[in-house]
């Protein structure tokens, strides 16, 4: 019989209360009748019977609750709609933002044991992270014991010719030990070996899956095939798996990185990236300590070159995400968390308000004998139904918005795929919402407790007031506070974006078309060969109707190649890289400054008379003078000599400042050199390979004629990255702009939610106090008094939320300082705008409740009493 | 269409109000022991029938000496009787159809 009692527990309590006793009696008779032998059979029948029937009873109750809930919600569509919208926005926005953040910042790299992978950099007083020089790398690698293995890579690119249209493809040169360090295997073929790495070995290459598929149709017999890259022939030895991207997603092939004796000569020639795998049991700190020792030893051995050189390790997982991008993603996640918080607070408030409204209904049902358990079930069903509706919509929002947020993912990461909605985050957001829903959905029962809620039954009983009113006000204050923080943050970032975008880059970007013409070497090693190409191309291009000017340059401003510095030496002293006196080097064809609209302050531009056999000249930027010749004016600087790019040069002109590396970078010294004044085969990385064309209107229209001109002159030369200069400049701020937009969207959501919160709270308290208002009016209160009463309440709420909100916003602004591009965290216009918006929001939220309060008819209010 | 248990309970209540155990005994007797309702099935069905208004709990108690304080008595409602009649008609139609094709013989 005890067992049967236990068994009955699977029934809902309400059912048990009703029928358990009789069921026990019936079962007792059966047990008695069955006799000792039949007992087992009876139990075998009874157990499944009880479970099956209990399930049906549970289902019946759920059905009842659902239909009751649906009826209730249909009667309060505003409540249901608001609750669902709040939950959906909260879950959707949070999940999308956290998914992207998690993908970029937290997810491990797609290599085995990624936490053991590190990068080794040099560091100087000027650069916290500097690529390695070959010589230092060799010494440190030989002296180290902490690495299981370590390898090098640096970027490369080549023109793929002989397969369809000539094409520019990005690649990476890797030392043979790099792939084993990452512990990756090829999909087909083999990896590089030490023999591939030897100077003078035949060219070998490994293809990316994408290049293999797009250019070679996934040919299974690709291994062994010869491929022409620029003018050099390479044998394909393998294809990497589809998901392998290293170091970034734009890399399409890998070639061996070869060292020769020459590369070890200059200890300050820093251009290699490294990846090392720490030995088992070696901690990051131990490894860093050993590197410090090795760097100190090098400093002793090479006091001149390594005077200022240290070694620093970073985790590979932290690499590639700039401090700025990281900060922005954190800001987004913070904003998303704020939105979720506001959403939960709002939901809680809504449910509390509803609970008070329903106090009477629940009291009536209790009085009519509904058990506590039935009410709990009913309220849980209602909360869950709302949470589920909102959750479903929220999931849809999350899935819809993650692709939009994808644009925020930097391309320079070895991540295999695009971020997708993160199920863990989604579940967390949904769980939080459900918990909120349940916690506050069940609140009315706290009142009902053990004793009957007689107050609730009393005719015209007023609810509200007291403790719960306090909770609800607090929730609204929290909402206002969070929305102020978001508004201020979004405002600061908007101001920063605006600051950045209105920065004068120093050139006129409108009506300029830019094209890559990646002249291959050794074909274009000699100046005369290049001269012939430039002269033919430029004269034909200038003849295109609509083209006003055209020139070639080493690297575009704000283009992909952001570096390009070269040491400067003054007064005939030998060049010393360790001094960190550097300027940006750009070889140009005559007319470059005019084409980009960079003003010439004094002197002349480079021209066709600046030939190889003439005096080497240079045009420098104003900041070159401030940095290296602070005593000279632009006019007096003309005629001064300095050594740069392997030659002594005389200054013939001073040009205006340009932001070469990005709008947010400060102005840096620029040196423009005539393309002819370089020895054949020297500094080939700086051959002018970018064409800039200024047009009278619509620059895109001349792209097609320019392509055909280039093809005519040089059929195997690809034309890549055709874009207007405006686009290039915009791309510089694109991810910042996208992130600011997302943050602004969050702020808007938060703002609307907080508005809904205020509106809900006030209209509820007005409806609860309708009788009081009626009495006051009947006793002679003017409508002005009533107005004051309601408005006073909303003003108090706003003040209570805005003041801590502004303080918190200032803290948030301080932590985002690096993103603000000079905008102060306490930026007055932003603060005033945010506070103003909050006040407007409060007023708008109070309008309806106030009107309702004024429309209270004293007679009917009193009659109800 | 009524669930079989519901139909049997309605039949058991057709002549007089009964408590739960009496319903089970009546159904067993009527079906010559072929259908023995379990307590779970009985009360689960009764709860639903109460909700649908097919039966009501009755306050009329039998003479005190027969009464057991714990027992609840159930009475068929006009709706319950109508539902049982409709079900009987439906079953009759079915049997007629079965007879027409030779699946059933004799008189019922």
Describe the overall structure.
The complex is a heterodimer of chains A (865) and B (108). Chain A folds into four domains: 2-75, no CATH class; 125-308, no CATH class; 323-502 and 732-864, no CATH class; 519-717, no CATH class. In chain A, 52% of the residues lie in helices and 15% in strands. Chain A has 25 helices and 22 strands. In chain A, the strands form three sheets. Chain A has a six-stranded mixed beta barrel with strand order 3-4-9-6-8-7. A six-stranded mixed barrel of chain A has the order 14-15-20-17-19-18. In chain A, strands 13-21-12-22 form a four-stranded antiparallel β-sheet. In chain A, helix 11 (372-405) packs antiparallel against helix 12 and helix 23 (783-815) runs antiparallel to helix 24. Chain B is mainly α and 108 residues long. Chain B is 54% helix and 9% strand. Chain B contains four helices and three strands. Chain B has helices spanning 4-13, 20-30, 39-52, 78-100; strands spanning 18-19, 55-58, 73-76. In chain B, strands 1-3-2 form a three-stranded antiparallel β-sheet. In chain B, helix 1 (4-13) packs across helix 2 (20-30). The model of chain B has no long low-confidence stretch (mean pLDDT 84).
Give the oligomer, counting copies of the same chain as homo and different chains as hetero.
heterodimer
Largest sheet of chain B: 3 strands, antiparallel
- Low-pLDDT runs of 5+ residues of chain A are 448-454, 456-465
- Side by side, the strands of the main sheet of chain A go 3-4-9-6-8-7
Number of domains of chain B: 1
Question: Concise description?
Answer:
The complex is a heterodimer of chains A (865) and B (108). Chain A is built from 25 helices and 22 strands. With 865 residues, chain A is of the alpha+beta class.
